[in-house]
């Protein structure tokens, strides 16, 4: 799957394919790629960012759980 996806389509795809994938987070400060490890039935995404908050080579990366929304 490439490009953008509707939230419902993305959720269905993620649940059918038990695989790690990349997602583009659109933030006010700019877009950022993260690795998505899981998307559960409650639309909670487990993500990780291999770069630290200090940038590449600056330490351990960040892990988080986010709610998938279409806004």
Please explain how this structure is put together.
By secondary structure, the chain is mainly beta. The chain has one domain (7-67). The chain is built from one helix and four strands. Strand 1 and strand 2 (30-39) form a beta hairpin. The longest helix is centred in the first third of the chain and has 10 residues, at 7-16. It is globular, with a radius of gyration of 13 Å. The model has no long low-confidence stretch (mean pLDDT 75).
pLDDT < 50 runs, ≥5 residues? none
Q: What percentage of residues falls in helices of 4 or more residues?
A: 10-25%
Major sheet: arrangement of strands: 1-2-3-4
Q: Kindly give the count of domains.
A: 1
- Find the count of extended strands (DSSP E, 2+ residues): 4
Rg over C-alpha atoms, rounded to the nearest angstrom:
13 Å
Strand content: 35-45%
Order of helices and strands: HEEEE
The tally of helices reads 1
Distance between the termini: 21 Å
**Mean pLDDT reading:** 75
**Category by helix and strand content:** mainly beta
Largest sheet: 4 strands, antiparallel
Shape: globular
